UniProtKB/TrEMBL annotation:
Belongs to the glycosyltransferase group 1 family. Glycosyltransferase 4 subfamily. This is GDP-Man:Man(3)GlcNAc(2)-PP-Dol alpha-1,2-mannosyltransferase. Residues 309-472 form the Glycosyl transferase family domain. One of its GO terms (biological process) is protein N-linked glycosylation. Residues 52-258 form the ALG11 mannosyltransferase N-terminal domain. The lineage of its organism: Eukaryota, Fungi, Dikarya, Basidiomycota, Agaricomycotina. It catalyses: an alpha-D-Man-(1->3)-[alpha-D-Man-(1->6)]-beta-D-Man-(1->4)-beta-D-GlcNAc-(1->4)-alpha-D-GlcNAc-diphospho-di-trans,poly-cis-dolichol + 2 GDP-alpha-D-mannose = an alpha-D-Man-(1->2)-alpha-D-Man-(1->2)-alpha-D-Man-(1->3)-[alpha-D-Man-(1->6)]-beta-D-Man-(1->4)-beta-D-GlcNAc-(1->4)-alpha-D-GlcNAc-diphospho-di-trans,poly-cis-dolichol + 2 GDP + 2 H(+). GO terms for cellular component: endoplasmic reticulum membrane. GDP-Man:Man(3)GlcNAc(2)-PP-Dol alpha-1,2-mannosyltransferase that operates in the biosynthetic pathway of dolichol-linked oligosaccharides, the glycan precursors employed in protein asparagine (N)-glycosylation. The assembly of dolichol-linked oligosaccharides begins on the cytosolic side of the endoplasmic reticulum membrane and finishes in its lumen. The sequential addition of sugars to dolichol pyrophosphate produces dolichol-linked oligosaccharides containing fourteen sugars, including two GlcNAcs, nine mannoses and three glucoses. It is a single-pass membrane protein. Keywords: Endoplasmic reticulum, Glycosyltransferase, Membrane, Transferase, Transmembrane, Transmembrane helix. It holds the Pfam family ALG11_N. Pathway: Protein modification; protein glycosylation.
C-alpha cells in the first residue's frame, strides 16, 4: 500500500510540475508579443503583418572561425532570398556591439549584411557552456549550461523558427517547449558518438578517454554508464528537431546512427518511473509536426575558395604546411614523427647545399581569452595566406576529422593535401575528380612519410595537373553558392511557413 501511495504522490508531483511549466511557457509567449513588436520597431519595421523571425543560436558568433562562416553565409542568403524575414542571433559576445560584429564579418569573411534585417540578443550566461567551468563531467556540465543559456534566450525573445548552428542539441527542447516553435540545426560534429562509447567499452586510451580511466575496469564501467545515459538523452534531443543539416558524410553517418540509437535497459528504466508521464505529456504538446526525423541532410560548409584560388600553382617552395589549432585531436606529434621518418629515409631533402630543402611549417593557435584570440586570428590569417600561396604540400593528421576545412583551403590554394584516411577528408574532400586523384591519404606514421615522399617526387607536369584538379574540385563542391543551395533545400522554410 505504501508503495502505491508513494507512486501516486510521485506521479501527481510530476504532473503538477509539468502543468507549472506549461503555465510559465504560456505567460512567456504572451509577453513575447510585445517584445517582438519592440524589436521590429527598433529595426524600423512599420508593418509587422506577416513578418517572421528566424533565430540562430550561436553564442560565439564573433569568433571568426569556420562555424561562424556557416552562420553568416546562411544569414546573408536569407537576406537575399527572403527580404521580409528578420534574422535573430543569440550571442554571448557581450563585449562587442552589433556594428562591431557586423564590421568583423565584413573584414573576416567579406560578407556584408543589412543591419536593418538582423537583431542581436546578447546573453550574459555564456560562461556556463565553457569547458573551463566543468573540469569534471564536462559533457554533462556544458549541456546543462546550454539549457540555461537557451532559457535566457527564450526569456528575452522567442522567434518563429529556432536554428542551432553550434551543436547544442539540448537546447532544442527548451525552444520547443517554451516557444512552441519548430527547431532545426546545422551540426558540425556530434557531441557524443558511438565511437566514443566503443573506445570506453574497449578501454582504449584516447584524448577523450584518459589512461587513468582506460586502465581501470571499475572506472571504465562507470564512464560507460555515464556515456550511455548521456547518449540516450542526446539522441532524444536530436529527435526533437524538425530538420537537421550536417557538414559531411562522416557527421551524417554518426548523426543518423544516433537518431536510430536505442538502449533497451534505459528505456525500461525510463518507462518504469514517474518521468514516463512527462514523456507522454511532452509528446502530446510538442511543437514538432509530422514524422519523427530519421536522417540529416549533408550541406557542405562554405569555404573561402575565391581568394585562395588566385594563388599561382607553379613555382612553389618545398614546404609541407599544417594549418590547425594546437589541440590534442589534431595529432601534431604524428606530423613531426612522419616528417622525421621522411628525412631519415631521404636525407637528400635537407642535406647541405640543397637549393630548396624540404621544410615542415606548423601554423595554428591555442584557445585563449577573447581579446587575445581576436588579435591572434588576424595575425594568423595573414601568416596562413602567405604560406598557402607558396607551400607545396598540406598536412593534416587528425583522425575522424568531421569535415576538414583546412584541407579544402589547401586544395583551393593549390597545395597538394596529405590527410588522415578517415572522416571528411576521406569521404568528401580528397576524392577522385574526373577519375584522377586530388591528393593523398594515410593512417600510420610510415604511410604519411611515404605519401609526402610520393608528392615530393612528382614531375612538374604531374604536380601542376594535380594542383589544378584539386583546386577545381574544391571550388566546385565547397563554394558559398553550393552551400546556399543545400541550405535552401534543407526544409527550414517549409517549417517556418507552418507557423
Amino acid at each position: 500500500m505504501l508503495v502505491i501511495l508513494s507512486s501516486l504522490l510521485s506521479l501527481s508531483t510530476t504532473i503538477l510540475l509539468w502543468l507549472g511549466l506549461q503555465v510559465y511557457a504560456w505567460l512567456l509567449r504572451k509577453d513575447n508579443t510585445m517584445r517582438r513588436k519592440s524589436v521590429l520597431r527598433q529595426l524600423g519595421v512599420t508593418s509587422t503583418e506577416g513578418r517572421k523571425l528566424v533565430g540562430f543560436f550561436h553564442p560565439y558568433c564573433n569568433a571568426g572561425g569556420g562555424g561562424e562562416r556557416v552562420l553568416w553565409t546562411a544569414i546573408a542568403a536569407l537576406q537575399r532570398n527572403e527580404p521580409e524575414i528578420i534574422s535573430v542571433v543569440y550571442s554571448g559576445d557581450i563585449d562587442a556591439t552589433k556594428d562591431q560584429i557586423l564590421d568583423k564579418v565584413k573584414a573576416r569573411f567579406d560578407i556584408e549584411l543589412d543591419p536593418l534585417k538582423i537583431h542581436f540578443v546578447f546573453l550574459h550566461s555564456r560562461k556556463w557552456i565553457e569547458d573551463s567551468q566543468w573540469p569534471y563531467f564536462t559533457l554533462l556540465g556544458q549541456s546543462l549550461g546550454s539549457i540555461y543559456l537557451a532559457w535566457e534566450a527564450m526569456s528575452i525573445l522567442i522567434p518563429d523558427l529556432y536554428i542551432d548552428t553550434m551543436g547544442y542539441a539540448f537546447t532544442f527542447r527548451v525552444a520547443s517547449i517554451l516557444g512552441r516553435i519548430p527547431v532545426g540545426a546545422y551540426v558540425h560534429y556530434p557531441t557524443i558518438s558511438t565511437d566514443m562509447l566503443a573506445r570506453v567499452r574497449s578501454r582504449r586510451k584516447w584524448h577523450t578517454n584518459a589512461s587513468a580511466i582506460s586502465s581501470s575496469a571499475v572506472l571504465s564501467k562507470a564512464k560507460l554508464l555515464y556515456y550511455r545515459i548521456f547518449m540516450y538523452h542526446y539522441a532524444s534531443s536530436l529527435r526533437t528537431a524538425s530538420f537537421l543539416m550536417v557538414n559531411s558524410s562522416w557527421t551524417s553517418g554518426h548523426v543518423d546512427s544516433i537518431l536510430r540509437h536505442s538502449d533497451f535497459f534505459l528505456n525500461v528504466f525510463q518507462w518504469s518511473t514517474p518521468t514516463a508521464m512527462l514523456r507522454i505529456l511532452d509528446a502530446a504538446t510538442t511543437a514538432r509536426k509530422g514524422k519523427r526525423i530519421s536522417h540529416a541532410r549533408i550541406v557542405y560548409p562554405p569555404c573561402d575558395t575565391r581568394e585562395m584560388s588566385s594563388f599561382a600553382l607553379a613555382h612553389r617552395q618545398r614546404v609541407i604546411l599544417s594549418v590547425a589549432q594546437f589541440r590534442p585531436e589534431k595529432d601534431h606529434p604524428t606530423q613531426l614523427r612522419a616528417f622525421a621518418q621522411l628525412l631519415n629515409a631521404h636525407p637528400e631533402y635537407t642535406k647541405s647545399g640543397v637549393k630548396d630543402p624540404v621544410r615542415l611549417v606548423l601554423i595554428g593557435g591555442s584557445r585563449n581569452d577573447e581579446d587575445a584570440r581576436r588579435v591572434a586570428n588576424l595575425r594568423r590569417l595573414a601568416q596562413e595566406l602567405e604560406w598557402l600561396s607558396k607551400a607545396s604540400i598540406g598536412l593534416s593528421t587528425m583522425i575522424d576529422e568531421h569535415f576538414g576545412i583546412n584541407v579544402v583551403e589547401f586544395m583551393a590554394a593549390g597545395v597538394i593535401p596529405v590527410a588522415h584516411a578517415s572522416g571528411g577528408p576521406l569521404k568528401d574532400i580528397i576524392v577522385p575528380f574526373n577519375g584522377k586523384p586530388t591528393g593523398y591519404h594515410a593512417k600510420t606514421t610510415e604511410e604519411f612519410a611515404d605519401a609526402l615522399n610520393t608528392a615530393l617526387l612528382l614531375s612538374s607536369e604531374e604536380e601542376l595537373a594535380l594542383r589544378q584538379r584539386a583546386r577545381t574540385w574544391a571550388i566546385q563542391r565547397f563554394s558559398e553558392e553550393e552551400f546556399e543551395k543545400g541550405w535552401n533545400a534543407s526544409g527550414w522554410k517549409e517549417w517556418l511557413l507552418k507557423q
